[in-house]
Amino acid sequence: MPDAAAAEERANARLAWARNATDVKELELQRASVDAGYRSYWRAQVGDGSRIVMDSPPELEDVRPWLRMRALLASGGVRVPQVLMEDTANGFVLMEDLGGPTLAQVIDADNADAQFDAAIKQLLRLQKIQPPLGMGEFGHALLQRDAGLFEDWFLRRHLGLELDADDLQRLEEAQGLLMDNALQQARVVTHRDFMPRNLMPVDDGPAVLDFQDCVVGPVAYDPVSLFKDAFLSWPIERVDEWLARYHARALQARIPVPHLPEFRRDADWLGVQRHLKILGIFARLHYRDGKSRYLPDAPRFITYLDEVLPRYRELDPLREVLDVRIRPAMERMPLPSP
Predict the structure, then answer these.
(1) How many Cβ atoms sit within 10 Å of the Cβ of residue 281?
(2) 37-53: buried (b, 16+ CB within 10 Å) or exposed (e) per residue?
(3) Which of 61, 105, 203, 303 is the most buried (most CB within 10 A)?
(4) Helix, strand, or coil here: 161?
(5) pLDDT per residue over 244-281, tens digit each?
(6) How many CB atoms sit inside 10 A of residue 314's CB?
(7) pTM of the shown model
């Protein structure tokens, strides 16, 4: 984490750049949002409205992958923020202000069908993009890293669990099945965090945010991320209905999805893989980065697992480890306050 002097120096550089970029000498910046990475977003009032300044310190988070991916998604018709000025050397970007609330803040049980219909439209545009040569792959190495996050940070660091040989074998067996399923699916451009807090409600949107880590990945990954959010839960019956709705529209758009029963299994299994990974990430954010507001959501992911694992006997080894080792350890370990 930067010290106070470095933070003040960066703040001065950010303000000077924003004043120059907007040609408003008296401009002031107000914090617009905070995320789990090193980027920060600042709102600037100008004559005809407001702008957003993205601050991405080059030594911590290179802004160029974000800009390259923004251009790729825009080329496919995906609604992304309009960039007005960029400074890659210093890590500053001036862009349109899409407004305040994210989709996560405005969606509710009554408007969810319409909101998700609009989100699916953007997702299908994203999935139809031809991946450029050299684009990152959601492959075995990434899956192994995700599995390691769960074991190293959530089980060992947070819960203090050291699994015995039998439990490790059960966990590795289940993780192997999840990995094989992910690797066997059709491949499309994959956001990897296509969820309501990364979508902004606008008339021609929703606009898609936080897309710099897009890869070529399994076709069911983003749909299940959208409907089984890290921060917002829905009844599983509605999730199943939305997955079927996405599937029908994907077939019409010629996205390479399998028959619905197979697609539903693929989405469920990717959901399990993703939930385990996020548990590891939330624990790492708490213990390594001092960001404790994420870990209190951990029980949400256990609920997701409880809903899905009984559907698939093949995943019984994971269910056994969850019931016998993980759940009792969580009950003994109070979660930090957000």
Answers:
(1) 18
(2) eebbbbbbeeeeeebbb
(3) 61
(4) coil
(5) 999 999 999 999 999 999 999 999 999 999 999 999 99
(6) 15
(7) 0.90
Distance CA 332, CA 235 (A): 27
What does the DSSP 8-state code read for residue 162? -
Pairing of strands 49-55, 40-46: antiparallel
Give dist(CA 332, CA 329) in Å, integer. 5
Question: Could you tell me where the beta strands, DSSP code E, fall in the chain?
Answer: 29-34, 40-46, 49-55, 83-87, 92-96, 187-190, 199-200, 207-208, 215-218
Whether the CB-CB separation of 274 and 227 falls below 8 Å is answered with no
User: Distance from first CA to last CA of the chain, Å, rounded?
Assistant: 20
Q: Which two tokens stand for residue 263?
A: 């697609």
Q: Which of 11-15, 33-37, 261-265 has the lowest mean pLDDT?
A: 33-37
CB-based contact 57:90 (threshold 8 Å): no
Per-residue pLDDT at 33: 78
Instruction: State the amino acid at position 269 in one-letter form.
Output: W
- Lookup: tokens for 289: 């980065």
Determine the topology of domain 103-332 in CATH: Aminoglycoside 3'-phosphotransferase; Chain: A, domain 2 (3.90.1200)
Sequence length of the chain is 338
